[in-house]
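tokens incoming
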């Protein structure tokens, strides 16, 4: 990056040297201005994104936390929901049919190929590993290779509990070994992961039914209704499982990359990234930490939180708070991925950028290089032309302008918080109608190519 910038600078210097010997003043001014503008734009993008000089030691610690730390949430996932026993299956001391690797991959769980020793890789390649046997899943857990699920083993070598980590929802793999098995891609949302179906494997859905004041069939209908790549983070505090039209409410797992310079986090701007990390680790993963947010002490809006004192969670020891700085550093280090060459039409994207920055009004909210508002990044539902159901579940009552970098890496599952627009073309059509932009089909195509390029 920097090398490129210096290269540009030296090109500029050479140009100045060349131009000083030139006589056509008009052309000189034009060329120089153009080159300077271009160089300055590059510089702004690069320095803004690289501004934070993150401590590599802290980043490395945060990576470990993000990938492998459960914050003691085994107490919930095994202690309450018994999901370790669901994985084992009745044949191995648990209950039910067990979770084979084939089943695990089918519900979107991913395997970190780099955690597999060579001999295991050869065995899988030669077909000598039974991917339909839950015991194989236990071995994959022993190798710490199931992304976002940590298995703990007792002295006898038996699986004693499991916990979940941030990577479960916010990492995927590059499929370089086979579908669902490859190198980790941290920060990329796992849009294959069916969180609801995984939770529904519990033999203690009664716990969730009691918590939410519904019956077990309702719990199961809701969990099975989220679908792949989605989760209802608000459910644990407001108990709202359905949208006003009766359909099941759930939001897309978002990207956790490209967040440098972004003010409020989450689709509805609950707080900044550090706030939300603490919220998730305590209230969603059910880790053992401390968490306070007096806004949750609102029985009308957050009845479940009030009943369970989620506004003031106290645990000793606190396994979360001390890790928040490292976690933040790691997340900030996750830059948005660069679109592969050839994945968009360069000339069309350049035309699309002109529209984005100008007549299509996109850059009034999605401001480069962060592609969300520079400053307070929330807008009302009316401003963006959608219903306020999800916004009204948040203390802010508003929607956060989504940072758009790395859009190409999260094309699965649709766009906007709940995936209501299946394609970028639909998103653009929505804005075209809402802002009465009167874009031609060609303009829309160009805008789409630009979105694929950022
Ligand atoms: C069960 C899946 C799941 C797990 C596990 C999970 N998250 Fe999330 N995360 C979500 C969902 C869903 C959202 C979107 C919430 C919303 O806005 O409604 C989200 C939002 C976020 C955001 C906001 C992104 C943005 O664009 O502003 C950050 C940051 C984040 N999570 C970090 C974490 C960290 C750190 C952990 C571990 C401590 C974690 N998450 C664990 C599902 C998960
Ligand atoms: C008034 C501010 C505003 C303007 C103007 C605006 N957006 Fe957005 N944009 C938002 C907000 C807020 C969201 C989040 C909506 C949600 O999640 O429900 C969003 C979401 C998106 C998304 C979905 C991202 C994802 O990952 O789900 C895309 C794509 C997008 N905008 C592109 C555009 C384009 C293209 C334009 C110009 C035609 C534009 N936006 C104009 C505020 C704006």
């Amino acid at each position: 990056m920097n090398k490129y910038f210096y290269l540009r600078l030296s090109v500029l210097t050479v140009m100045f040297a060349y131009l000083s010997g030139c006589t056509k003043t008009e052309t000189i001014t034009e060329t120089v201005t153009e080159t300077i503008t271009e160089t300055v734009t590059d510089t702004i993008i690069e320095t803004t994104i690289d501004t934070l000089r993150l401590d590599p030691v802290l980043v490395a610690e945060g990576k470990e936390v993000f990938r492998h730390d459960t914050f003691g949430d085994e107490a919930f996932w095994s202690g309450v929901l018994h999901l370790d026993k669901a994985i084992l299956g009745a044949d191995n001391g648990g209950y039910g049919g067990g979770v084979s690797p084939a089943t695990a991959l089918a519900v979107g769980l991913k395997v970190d190929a780099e955690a597999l020793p060579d001999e295991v890789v050869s065995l899988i390649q030669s077909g000598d590993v039974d991917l339909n046997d839950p015991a194989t899943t236990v071995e994959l857990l022993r190798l710490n290779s199931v992304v976002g699920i940590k298995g703990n083993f007792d002295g006898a070598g038996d699986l004693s509990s499991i916990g979940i980590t941030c990577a479960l929802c916010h990492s995927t793999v590059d499929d370089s070994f086979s579908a669902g098995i490859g190198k980790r891609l941290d920060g990329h949302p796992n849009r294959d992961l069916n969180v609801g179906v995984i939770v529904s494997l519990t033999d203690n859905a009664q716990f969730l039914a009691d918590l939410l004041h519904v019956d077990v069939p309702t719990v199961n209908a809701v969990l099975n209704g989220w679908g792949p790549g989605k989760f209802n983070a608000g459910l644990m505090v407001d108990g709202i499982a359905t949208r006003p039209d009766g359909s099941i409410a759930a939001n897309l797992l978002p990207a956790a990359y490209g967040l440098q310079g972004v003010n409020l986090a989450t689709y509805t701007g609950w707080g900044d990234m550090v706030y939300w990390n603490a919220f998730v680790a305590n209230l969603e993963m059910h880790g053992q930490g401390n968490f306070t947010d007096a806004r949750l002490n609102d029985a009308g809006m957050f009845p479940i939180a009030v009943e369970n004192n989620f506004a003031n969670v106290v645990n000793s020891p606190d396994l979360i708070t001390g890790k928040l700085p490292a976690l933040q550093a790691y997340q900030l280090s996750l830059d948005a991925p660069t679109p592969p060459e050839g994945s968009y039409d360069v000339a069309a994207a350049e035309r699309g950028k002109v529209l984005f920055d100008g007549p299509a009004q996109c850059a009034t909210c999605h401001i480069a290089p962060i592609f969300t508002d520079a400053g307070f990044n929330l807008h009302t539902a009316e401003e963006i032309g959608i219903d306020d159901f999800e916004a009204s579940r948040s203390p802010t009552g508003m929607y956060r302008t989504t940072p758009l970098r790395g859009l190409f890496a999260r094309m699965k599952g649709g766009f906007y918080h709940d995936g209501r627009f299946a394609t970028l073309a639909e998103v653009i059509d929505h804005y075209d109608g809402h802002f009465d932009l009167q874009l031609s089909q060609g303009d829309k195509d160009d805008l789409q190519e630009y979105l694929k390029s950022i």
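note: The two ends are 16 Å apart (CA to CA).
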